[in-house]
Hints:
By secondary structure, the protein is of the alpha+beta class. The chain has one domain (about 10-185): tt1808, chain A (Alpha-Beta Complex). About 20% of the residues lie in helices and about 30% in strands. The protein contains three helices and ten strands. The strands form three sheets. The chain has a six-stranded mixed sheet with strand order 3-4-5-6-7-8. Strands 1-2 form a two-stranded antiparallel ribbon. The chain has a two-stranded antiparallel ribbon with strand order 9-10. A hairpin with a 2-residue loop joins β1 (about 25-30) and β2 (about 30-35).
Amino acid sequence: MNATAAPTLVSAEEFLRLHGDDSGVELVDGQIVRTAMPGFEHGDICMRTGVILSNFVNANNLGRVLGNDTFIRTRTNPDGFRGADVCYVSYERYAKDLPRPKGPVVPPIELVVEVKSPSDTILEMTNKATEYLAAGVKVVMVLDPETESAAVYRADEFPHRFHNGDSVVLPDILPGFAVPVAKFFE
């Protein structure tokens, strides 16, 4: 008989102790997953997206925009942490006068933006969006540099696709926000 041993699951505490300061490492269903370093285009789109969101959020005094693979707790039992490319939390959900916490964020995050890397598949991005939504994130936007499009995911809805010529709108979390899709990829 050739039995395969079940993989050893890593707890949230152990993951944070070993990889709490590491970029490019996530905890998915209790398993440590190394993510590829996606490169120039990915970094440029992430930064551009963060600036677009920060400019709007700051101008309207709405909340905080976070970037640089912010660890977000997505699961328990088995544990999961994802490194969001860009995310937003409103002052309604995390008051402006509270200190910025150290370490991972536990939702209530309103928006997570992920930029599809060359090594990512559509299925992987859909699964990641679904995981964020199940954790309590209200909206997940996936930007695809290859097609220069955006897919916006909400719980219990089909994804809404925005293409070149469309403007991304997020009225449920950022009223008044309307940005042409092309701006994310310039």
